[in-house]
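call fold(seq) -> tokens
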Amino acid sequence: MPVPLPAFDRTYDELRVRWPASTEERDVATPYGRTRVHVHGPVDGSPLVLLPGGSATGLVWFANAPALGRRYRVHAVDLLGDAGRTERRGTPLKSADDLTAWLDALLDGLGLTRVHLCGHSYGAWLAVRYALRAPQRVDRLALVDPTQVFAGFRPGYLLRALPTLIRPGEARARAFLAWETAGTHPDETWQRLYALATTVPGRKLVAGGRPRTAGLRVPVLVLLAEHSRTHHAAKVADRARRTLPRAEVALLPGATHHSLPLTAPQQLNDRLMDFLG
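ret:
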């Protein structure tokens, strides 16, 4: 049986407290509904938009926000169609084009003409599609263990994920997460939030084919989890280098797919800030 929504809300609020005290909560109107954005950092800092993986919510960047927020104006987004505080109302969400149109409207609502864009997993897939659609609005593009960008999922990963997709439940989601993140010990509150997110009624993550990454015309950083079970990191790294010969590609030692961006946040932060400049 689905877990009552208040359980998710309580856990969401618990994790929100982990963000710096100066963090602002903004609800931005778009044609697709109001979007929750967690904003931290100097008002005059270069804008950095963070897109999470599925079920992670924008709060997943809590371990990165303090460091990134010293230099950049961080905007961590709850994705449209996913669990979180973003509402899906108004224009129907039907396709990947709707997602990129929503992100375009979100940047307009935030008053951001041009941004650094960073995405993890599903958020990285969306970031690539947006950079292809609106390269004039993306200064630099960072992809953290991107899925469905340079390669598909491992069959074994999909088989493990299938029970949670067919019959969502907190226990099944926790078991799946424990398998993929073995040895990394992600934050307990975030693990609970992730598991509860899979049970939230009305979630609708829009899928789509792999984007034509060869068409990217912005500087790109690709950070891959060394022990990711979603795909073979070394093969993805090779494909990324062949597709984007000018991109920076690196492995994050010890990381798994779902333990990011929580695993060794200083390492990820340093890599990201060196790239963004």
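The first strand starts at residue 24 and ends at 28.
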